[in-house]
Design brief:
By secondary structure, the protein is an all-alpha fold. The protein has one domain (14-267). Helices cover 73% and strands 0% of the residues. The protein is built from twelve helices and no strands. The chain has helices spanning 9-24, 26-40, 49-70, 74-98, 106-111, 117-135, 138-145, 151-178, 182-196, 217-229, 236-260, 264-267.
Length: 268
């Protein structure tokens, strides 16, 4: 995708100015994200806790069955399963929202001269708030099984997730505004990825075949946050892979946003 002419630096400078302007509007981003949460669950008795209840039921059902199928102790498997499902649900919802981040704000983009990246930050923060509700169900699981999270390590993993999430929204949202086939494709990819990523099964169960998981970037991204939440150390290979994923996401997100920002109003 070629950058706008004249020159290749003009779109990058414009994108950088857009991002700087969005940071100054952080109060607006917070208000819009909170409004999205309230509108999404308007008229619902439990609100966003419906998602937590659904996840809790899934954890209880799979936690009773899968230790028997996989031959794993429940005290080891259930906290792993609970943490994996909460993180995976957050990731899937983020990808789904990223694919429509700009398209669903078409009226606002046409009507108000806001920095375009405000809508990306809004989608990201909305998902962070929603994920926080789901994460609440981990507390009773950790108390029941005596898990002591490493909050410092978890915070580091969360920051990496947030950086990746923001630039993912910039890239996927811009591409989806131009190519409307991307949202269903992204949903299908995430559905397939669920089965080939250690979420309800563990990487150790592959034995010598676990090496192929290095080709799955989602494995490393899950591991850098899941391991500290379970009170475990993150393997250095996972941090290295996560760093490579982050660099790729930042570069791709910046390039795609810079190349498409000026055209988004016409595409949506």
């Amino acid at each position: 995708m070629a950058l706008d002419q004249p020159g290749q630096t003009a779109p990058l400078l414009a994108a950088a100015q857009d991002l700087r302007a969005a940071t100054r509007l952080w109060r607006l981003v917070w208000a819009l994200a909170w409004m999205d949460i309230r509108l999404r669950y308007r008229g619902s008795w439990l609100g966003p806790f419906w998602l937590s209840l659904s996840t809790a039921i899934t954890i209880a059902a799979l936690g009773a069955l899968y230790p028997l199928l996989l031959g794993l102790p429940a005290r080891d498997y259930v906290p792993y399963l609970a943490t994996s499902l909460v993180l995976w649900n957050a990731l899937v919802q983020l990808v789904a929202d990223a694919a429509v981040a700009f398209a669903e704000q078409a009226r606002v983009i046409h009507a108000l001269p806001l920095p375009v990246s405000v809508h990306a930050a809004r989608a990201l923060l909305r998902n962070v708030l929603a994920a926080a509700h789901q994460a609440a169900i981990l507390l009773p699981v950790f108390l029941l099984y005596g898990i002591a999270p490493d909050f410092g390590g978890a915070l580091a993993g969360l920051l990496v997730w947030i950086v990746n999430g923001f630039f993912l929204v910039l890239a996927l949202g811009a591409l989806s505004a131009r190519f409307r086939d991307i949202p269903p494709i992204a949903a299908s990819v995430m559905q397939l990825a669920f089965f080939v990523t250690p979420v309800i099964w563990r990487a150790e169960q592959l034995g010598p075949h676990a090496a192929w998981l290095h080709a799955n970037p989602l494995h490393a991204m899950l591991s850098i946050l899941r391991a500290p939440l379970l009170g475990q150390a993150v393997a250095s290979a996972h941090w290295q892979a996560a760093a490579m994923v982050t660099a790729s996401t930042v570069l791709a997100g910046t390039a795609i946003f810079a190349a498409t920002r000026a055209r988004l109003a016409f595409w949506v």
